[in-house]
DNA sequence: GCGACAG
DNA sequence: ATCTTGTCGC
């Protein structure tokens, strides 16, 4: 995967600035269709790398409404701060293939807790005009005081702004990070993450999407699915 | 210059 | 993310 030139990077940064300018940090979501999306990768023998995205749509009681997936050839390397250019296209396509349009979508990755306020969750949300929340297992940027009791959360601050929360979601697990993508306030991002937590480290929509995409990946590798 | 760095 | 078996703990 060719690393982008300094000039190309500047162009991508301006694209992120454009996305960031369209982010809404106010609540504009409902919970009729609660979805989750996640990506996995496949390295083929011929050297090509594929991105597999899996999306799941659940109703308020977490019953499955619909699943979808999409596969595209990778066209960008992994670079901190530029993840959306690697995983965004496949994720957007998978979400478009869901039977029901999500009214709130959980994305594996950052939201506004990003150097240019344009993490994957924000990019997907602005692109598809869907309220989104970003959930990540590691901090890309920002500082915080580690929460020490299950259920506790500490503000994640970046450049003097509260961009998300670090939440201790489960015993014997490292805390997770939750932040608005767009169409969700910082407080609601935390509330949503807490309310959709069940018996796993990640909120159920994220967990379900992760299981789904890995299932799709294994079926592709076994030849059951083709594209 | 050095370290950090979503997935 | 991915490479990978067993293993410790609830």
From TrEMBL:
Its EC number is 3.1.21.7. It catalyses: Endonucleolytic cleavage at apurinic or apyrimidinic sites to products with a 5'-phosphate. The keyword Cytoplasm applies. The keyword Metal-binding applies. Keywords: Cytoplasm, DNA damage, DNA repair, Endonuclease, Hydrolase, Magnesium, Metal-binding, Nuclease. It is an enzyme of class 3 (hydrolase). Mg(2+) binds at residues 38, 108. Gene3D superfamilies: archaeoglobus fulgidus dsm 4304 superfamily (3.30.2170.10). Signal peptide: none annotated. Its main location: cytoplasm. It is found in: Cytoplasm. Coiled coil: none annotated. Its cofactor is Mg(2+). Pfam families: Endonuclease_5. The record marks 78 as: Interaction with target DNA. One of its GO terms (molecular function) is endonuclease activity. InterPro entries: Endonuclease-V. DNA repair enzyme involved in the repair of deaminated bases. Selectively cleaves double-stranded DNA at the second phosphodiester bond 3' to a deoxyinosine leaving behind the intact lesion on the nicked DNA. Belongs to the endonuclease V family. This is Endonuclease V. It comes from Candidatus Methanocrinis alkalitolerans. The lineage of its organism: Archaea, Methanobacteriati, Methanobacteriota, Stenosarchaea group, Methanomicrobia.
